[in-house]
Amino acid sequence: MDCMKLCIAPIGVLHKDEQGVRVELEPAYAPGLLGLELYSHVHILWWFNRRDTPEDRGRLQVRPPHRGTPGPMGVFASRSPSRPNPIALSTGRILSVDRERGVLTLDWSDAEDGTPVLDIKPYSTGLDRVTEAREPYWHDEWPHTYEEARQRGE
Amino acid sequence: MDCMKLCIAPIGVLHKDEQGVRVELEPAYAPGLLGLELYSHVHILWWFNRRDTPEDRGRLQVRPPHRGTPGPMGVFASRSPSRPNPIALSTGRILSVDRERGVLTLDWSDAEDGTPVLDIKPYSTGLDRVTEAREPYWHDEWPHTYEEARQRGE
Question: pTM of the entire structure?
Answer without folding.
Answer: 0.95
